[in-house]
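Thread: "does anyone have the structure for this chain?"

Original post by V.I.:
We have the sequence but no experimental structure in hand. Need at least a predicted one for the grant figures.
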Amino acid sequence: MAEREEVPGPQSEDLQLKSLLKNYISLIGLALAVVALANIVFLFLIDIFGNRPSPYIGILAYMIMPGFLIFGLFLVPLGLWVERSRRRRGRPELPAYPRLDLNNPSQRSTVAFFLAFVVLFVVLSAVGSYRGYEYTDSTQFCGQLCHTVMHPEFTAHQASPHARVRCVDCHVGAGAGWYVRSKLSGTRQVFKTALGTFPRPIETPVANLRPAPETCEQCHWPKKFWGAQLKVINHFGSDEKNTPRQLRLLIKTGGGDPGAGLSGGIHWHMNINNEITYSSDPKRQVIPYVKLKNRTTGQVTEYYAADAKPDEIGRMQSKVMDCVDCHNRPTHIYVPPDRSVDQALTAHRINPTLPYAKSQSVQILTADYKTTDEAVKAIAADFPKFYQEKYPDVYNSRQKDIKDAVSELQRIFRTTRFPEMKVDWRTHPDNVGHFYVPGCFRCHDGNHSSKDGKTITKDCNVCHTVLSQEEGGVPVMGSSAGINFKHPIDLGDMTAVNCSDCHNGGVGP
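Reply from O.Q.:
Generated one for you, tokens below.
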């Protein structure tokens, strides 16, 4: 007797997957997923094989397109559920849930395909998630994605000693806890960027920055700081001859660990044998109170500025001193025009024999401009104009030197001043040293005293030794013991003034 062929009934036809897929929601989801997947593959190949891929490729490939892919895949089962519910409203006899029968070849193939797809999707998701995580940790993501906002920081980072150090290594550090905190903070910053409500300039210091021992000290080892370093400072006068003046200093780097060497010098502050706590204004430029604790003996000494008010100190932020209280611009350094031009003259990127090259360069770089383009055009016009009007012979005979100087000044402006974000050396003072801003003199001003009569010293020789300097154009050499610093202009009692009282980084006295 011949076997009777089983004809599928209406119920199985209505509930077949191919039939249920015939709905707009699932079809849109499938189309969206296919387009998103194709874009992910295409952008991934560009990211892998491109010479200099755009930072926007990363966010498209690893963040935006995967989102569309997942959304599209979510729409497919949603459409199936909606379509099944719609059919059941007209056919109550249809079962509420799908029936799984692995003895049915069609269903068995469907289940096998689904499981293979799930495994493939999980693997691709894992790879994509890692690439996405890796991309969000990249310098390009931090510095170039929000171009207007982070342009000053990214540009300064590329020109800094830490150019090969990723942003996250300092701003986030190791561990999941700070990674999550940084991404939550970043979400808030994304909204501010999208709405255009971010501050100009970006506010500093960063209030929630991870403590320096957990970031800086992973590379820089305070216990190994000791000895001294030679520093050569080349300075040019603002006169017609751009008179050079060189100062050679022995910087007493020192250290705070008696076991590693002589305990003293600048890194005596590094909280190894001594712990320093201070109170300051939000910008950390005014410090009326300092507390010193000797970790060996437990002795505590408190220093108050001469004009300190206890009630104001109580309302101020209190902080244990660490690396960034002095090295507050370790990477994002906005070099003052005075120093930038000195460096350019030293390297002959600006010819020091051009009359008044120093004063004209600093004056042009210090002027206020609304945009970078405006500044670039003004530099190209104003610098040659000075020689055309005041030194026509120089203008006619030294066009190359003048053009080279213009190019260098434009480069300096582009890398140190950012009018669109209102960023320059004045908005972000560098506290290393004390030439253009109080820096060290925030505490070492000779005016911070304790109740028992101790005073935080202002003695120059505590931190550095002058080995040689030029006086009247004549080099004066000293021994290893050093010589007394002599200012080109007689200022009388040097301890009564600070360098930054006159030198502001721009057009000077």
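V.I.: this helps a lot. Strands lie at 229-236, 244-251, 274-280, 289-294, 300-305, 317-320, 448-449, 464-471, 474-477.
O.Q.: and Residues 1-12 have pLDDT under 50 and may be disordered.
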